[in-house]
Amino acid sequence: MSEQTLTQLGREVRGFDSPDQAVLERVPNPQADVLYLARFTAPEFTSLCPVTGQPDFAQLVIDYAPKDWLIESKSLKLYLGSFRNHGAFHEDCTVAIGRKIVEVAQPHWLRIGGYWYPRGGIPIDVFWQSGPPPQGLWLPDQGVQPYRGRG
């Protein structure tokens, strides 16, 4: 992805109807010479069950070690919101989000934890990472408790 003009930050933007339509944007990393971890937490992520059409809820924790680019947070919020009417299984949503962020930001490393609330009485947690973490990167626990009402 080459240098781009931000199309959402500082502007009124209507949400997107699907992840395919959403635009995930990046900005230059002013600390590109430092290895560090950035975390996004989305405690109220929603999507739809592709079979029943019923809503599914999750807490997403996205950790990434930026290289030359940062994910612009407003565009991330709009991208995640685009899943609200999107039918997909938990595993698909979680991995697709992680892969999209890697595609756009090209970080040193990324991991995503999708902590899904029960469907049919079974919570489904999904974890994906882009590869082994860089040596020397501090990796704090994602801080989500095993399911007991999560919260």
Automatic annotation (TrEMBL):
InterPro entries: GTP-CH-I_C/QueF (IPR043133), NADPH_dep_7-cyano-7-deazaG_red (IPR050084), QueF (IPR029500), QueF_type1 (IPR016856). It is found in: Cytoplasm. The keyword Hydrolase does not apply. One of its GO terms (biological process) is tRNA queuosine(34) biosynthetic process. The active site is at C49, D56. SUPFAM superfamilies: Tetrahydrobiopterin biosynthesis enzymes-like. Substrate binds at I71, E72, S73, H90, E91. Gene3D superfamilies: 3.30.1130.10. Keywords: Cytoplasm, NADP, Oxidoreductase, Queuosine biosynthesis. The keyword rRNA-binding does not apply. GO terms for molecular function: preQ1 synthase activity. It is an enzyme of class 1 (oxidoreductase). Its main location: cytoplasm. Belongs to the GTP cyclohydrolase I family. QueF type 1 subfamily. PANTHER family: NADPH-DEPENDENT 7-CYANO-7-DEAZAGUANINE REDUCTASE (PTHR34354:SF1). Catalyzes the NADPH-dependent reduction of 7-cyano-7-deazaguanine (preQ0) to 7-aminomethyl-7-deazaguanine (preQ1). This is NADPH-dependent 7-cyano-7-deazaguanine reductase. It comes from Phenylobacterium montanum. The lineage of its organism: Bacteria, Pseudomonadati, Pseudomonadota, Alphaproteobacteria, Caulobacterales.
